[in-house]
Amino acid sequence: MRWKVAILTASDRGSRGEREDTSAQVIRELIEEEMNGEIIEYRVVPDEKDEIMAALIEMTDYFRADLILTTGGTGLAVRDVTPEATLSVIDRHAPGFAEAMRMYSLQKTPRAMLSRAVSGIRGKTLILNLPGSPKGVSENLSAVIDQLPHALAILTGREGDHGDEA
Ligand SMILES: Nc1ncnc2c1ncn2[C@@H]1O[C@H](COP(=O)(O)OP(=O)(O)OP(=O)(O)O)[C@@H](O)[C@H]1O
Ligand SMILES: Nc1nc2c(c(=O)[nH]1)N[C@H]1C(S)=C(S)[C@@H](COP(=O)(O)O)O[C@H]1N2
């Protein structure tokens, strides 16, 4: 069985249809090509905590995603609230993913320290925040993608198609 992955874009501009969501496309490509994952749900919401929380809860409790990747809203701007929405819906912290992504990203750009991204678990769903830009998405997801099949196998108690890989 392939890993079920949901993508949530938090972007005021994107939610108004003012920008093509190339960041979500980067996620889709990496997940399908590097992890043989299946995108089961995709949503774009404005940078509003309630809307981000509602989407994360639906993707977990109704769509039963194994993994949710958010993009956008992790920076220092007043409207950047994706980490707060994520922390409000998780029941366990899993900080190692965000730590690894920031550590790897700092080697690419010192601006990586501006990301407040968090990672955690709601039920049997792993939720990872990624930055908004396509470059940030690619560099952050690349830092952890090799470990995701093993992490999801332990979290869900299932093996994916490539679950026997390290
Ligand atoms: N979903 C996205 N798709 C493509 N590019 C994006 C996306 N989100 C952000 N970017 C790019 O990353 C840059 C920095 O992201 P930031 O979150 O500050 O975007 P913004 O446009 O200021 O805010 P918002 O997306 O909430 O309207 C943006 O200028 C934009 O070029
Ligand atoms: N690897 C990597 N991480 C990165 C970046 C990047 O270009 N590459 N951009 C940074 C910048 S400029 C910001 S403001 C923060 C938060 O981005 P967000 O507000 O779009 O979520 O992510 C940071 N993390």
Polypeptide structure, described:
- The structure is a single chain.
- The protein is of the alpha/beta class.
- The chain has one domain: MoaB/Mog-like domain (Molybdenum Cofactor Biosythetic Enzyme, Chain A), CATH 3.40.980.
- It has 7 helices and 6 strands.
- Strands 2-1-3-6-5-4 form a 6-stranded mixed sheet, sandwiched between helices.
- Helix 2 runs parallel beside helix 6, helix 3 packs across helix 4 and helix 5 packs across helix 6.
- The protein is globular.
- The mean pLDDT is 96.
- May be involved in the biosynthesis of molybdopterin.
Sequence-ordered SSE layout with sheet pairings:
Blueprint: E1 4-10, H1 12-15, H2 22-34, E2 38-45, H3 49-62, E3 67-71, H4 82-89, E4 92-93, H5 95-106, E5 119-122, E6 125-130, H6 134-144, H7 148-156
Parallel strand pairs: 1-2, 1-3, 3-6
Antiparallel strand pairs: 4-5, 5-6
Helix pairs in contact: 2-6, 3-4, 5-6
Bound molecules: adenosine-5'-triphosphate and ligand MTE.
Adenosine-5'-triphosphate binds next to helix 1 and helix 2.
Pathway: Cofactor biosynthesis; molybdopterin biosynthesis
Pfam families: MoCF_biosynth (PF00994)
Enzyme class: transferase
Number of strands: 6
The assigned CATH architecture is 3-Layer(aba) Sandwich
Report Rg. Answer: 14 Å
- CATH fold-level assignment: Molybdenum Cofactor Biosythetic Enzyme, Chain A
The largest β sheet comes out as: 6 strands, mixed
The helical percent reads: 40-55%
The number of domains? 1
Principal-axes shape call: globular
Strand order of the largest sheet: 2-1-3-6-5-4
- Secondary-structure element order, N to C: EHHEHEHEHEEHH
Mean pLDDT: 96
